[in-house]
Fold this sequence. Notes:
Distance between the termini of chain B: 67 Å
Order of helices and strands of chain B: HHHHHHH
Oligomer: heterodimer
CATH class of the domain at 1-82 in chain B: Mainly Alpha
Strand order of the largest sheet of chain A: 1-2
Low-confidence stretches of chain B: none
Radius of gyration of chain A: 21 Å
Order of helices and strands of chain A: HHHEEHHHHHHHHHHHHHHHHHH
CATH architecture of the domain at 1-82 in chain B: Up-down Bundle
Structural class of chain A: mainly alpha
Amino acid sequence: xxxxxxxxxxxxxxxxxxxxxxxxxxxxxxxxxxxxxxxxxxxxxxxxxxxxxxxxxxxxxxxxxxxxxxxxxxxxxxxxxxxxxxxxxxxxxxxxxxxxxxxxxxxxxxxxxxxxxxxxxxxxxxxxxxxxxxxxxxxxxxxxxxxxxxxxxxxxxxxxxxxxxxxxxxxxxxxxxxxxxxxxxxxxxxxxxxxxxxxxxxxxxxxxxxxxxxxxxxxxxxxxxxxxxxxxxxxxxxxxxxxxxxxxxxxxxxxxxxxxxxxxxxxxxxxxxxxxxxxxxxxxxxxxxxxxxxxxxxxxxxxxxxxxxxxxxxxxxxxxxxxxxxxxxxxxxxxxxxxxxxxxxxxxxxxxxxxxxxxxxxxxxxxxxxxxxxxxxxxxxxxxxxxxxxxxxxxxxxxxxxxxxxxxxxxxxxxxxxxxxxxxxxxxxxxxxxxxxxxxxxxxxxxxxxxxxxxxxxxxxxxxxxxxxxxxxxxx
Amino acid sequence: xxxxxxxxxxxxxxxxxxxxxxxxxxxxxxxxxxxxxxxxxxxxxxxxxxxxxxxxxxxxxxxxxxxxxxxxxxxxxxxxxxxxxxxxxxxxxxxxxxxxxxxxxxxxxxxxxxxxxxxxxxxxxxxxxxxxxxxxxxxxxxxxxxxxxxxxxxxxxxxxxxxxxxxxxx
Lengths: 476, 170
């Protein structure tokens, strides 16, 4: 095997993040005020890696003994993770001070988690998927419990760790069965031998276990029990990256594992299972979110229902569905980051100001924040001018193309239900008499991050065609 | 019956018996000691598979270093002689038996009835494949990227452990 300079240039985003982790550790060791340097250093790292990934999106190649791929959808995911993490770093600067966890290690763990997501997204081998998954999850377990003094944060970390380990067990067992039936861990080998194994019971059970394990990670319905508690207990900025980057990375791994099946009749075996997951997640998330009084829990249930919408695109088994889900993930990453960003800005000390009722009259007290939050709520509920609408549109279209119109109809019904709780927040902010509610003090860096997220949400909503075209050219 | 099969039967019998004894002991230290025995038997099995380096590493790292840590922790924490989990929740026993039987049947199905696709090649019956040299070659060529990624995984885990366990932040 010969490794050329070009190979290293192709994996430069990975190298940048990896070098960033090592340099951050050194900075943390020697610099007195590392917690002031590291956020800006991470932003530079994330931005350069993300920009380079988008810049080289056309140079598709399979590298290092078929272990990883670069270019194409992998680079689009790189861009999502890196920009998402850059926005989270901006949000974290003042949030960590407020929460009493103003430590540099936070950013090292954030970079490690992003490295894991990137390894997941460009994996071409089950070994890489496993290592990437752990590289992503272990920093998340720690970040969830980063606020060691808080009981809730500890509970969230422990719950996430135990259930996450359980899910990893499923995934590894599934990988074992896949290896047993195919004789190789490489996706390419699975593709070439697919004709022989596609009806093999062991292989199918293996893939099914794999899907179940990743359903934990994407927070789909029967495997969602950890989501509300972990999202509520973790520091808000951690929840922001967990619910966006983590979910997108898990979806990218699902696509890699299912890619041999797409376009093959044997995919029909998984369709009932996947569509049941999708329907239950959508309806459960949307209906239970209505009853929530805590905004972080509400967004957690909304995240479950969004996993359902994205699963529709997976269920279709078409290239258009895959492209639709990637588009949806891009839109969802930035709108959810924005929503959690505003929650983290308004959050007071000791978990105060997190009730939905605390947002009453925000429109009068801070019109800018209220306006931004309304944009994110409109986008999340899928109203037309914003990014969320087109995400749902492409996903539903792919369901109709694959002859599952009923799935699209259930999706539309669920969206209509979800409009209630998203718009209730907007109504509370603008149309409530009286003078109750909180007087927020707003951090400038976090505001910058939220404004960037809002701009991206609007841009994706204005030019959905060119973005979906870009994604579609890379989805086979 | 050649020597290889005799050795396999001996080592696997030790492994099975010691793992059963490990989970049924009430005393945690006894369990740990049976786990060491199990690791030793496993390393014998690795030897019969021409993986002499892995066998040695198994003894040094697992049976040696890690189990010593285990024993230290058990002795330091001195778990009280409480009722076992199964005695407190008798219904869980049936659940556990059900899962165990299910996994056993699944493995039996895989081994006995499943038609392998013919892609599984018989490992070359060669003493060379288990040497440090050939393992190193594989690690630094074919598995270069996973190897480096695993290094970062360990770094992240170490930082995480320090963050969670550090006594006081400055």
